[in-house]
Amino acid sequence: MHPDMQKHNPGGHTPTAEQFKTWYCPLIEKMLLEYPVNHNILFAVPG
Questions:
Q1: Residue 25: what pLDDT?
Q2: What is the spatial distance between Cα 34 and Cα 21, in angstroms, rounded to a whole number?
Q3: For the range 39-47, what are the long-range contacts, defined as Cβ-Cβ under 8 Å and sequence gap of 24 or more?
Q4: Cβ-count burial 2-17 (b if 16+ within 10 Å, e if not)
Q5: pLDDT digit string (tens) for 3-46?
Q6: Which of these, 34, 41, 43, 44, lies nearest to 7 by C-alpha position?
């Protein structure tokens, strides 16, 4: 992962429901707004 996109997460390996609600959800929302999905990118499907 690119260093600019790395985030420090609280707690251990598995987040609690409270950590997910107060920390991970806001981070996910922020990242989705900052890095929107580009639907114009073509991907090669392995066959």
A1: 93
A2: 20
A3: none
A4: eeeeeeeeeeeeeeee
A5: 565 666 666 678 889 988 998 899 999 988 998 777 777 776 76
A6: 34
Q: How far apart are CA 25 and CA 5, in angstroms?
A: 16
Instruction: Give the Cα separation of 12 and 20 in Å (integer).
Output: 12
Reading the block at residue 2, the tokens are: 């690119």
How far apart are alpha carbons 23 and 5 in whole angstroms? 16
Query: What pLDDT, on a 0 to 100 scale, did the predictor assign at position 35?
Result: 85
Whole-number Å distance between alpha carbons of 19 and 12: 11
In order, the DSSP letters of 16-44 are: -HHHIIIIIHHHHHHHHHHS---TT---P
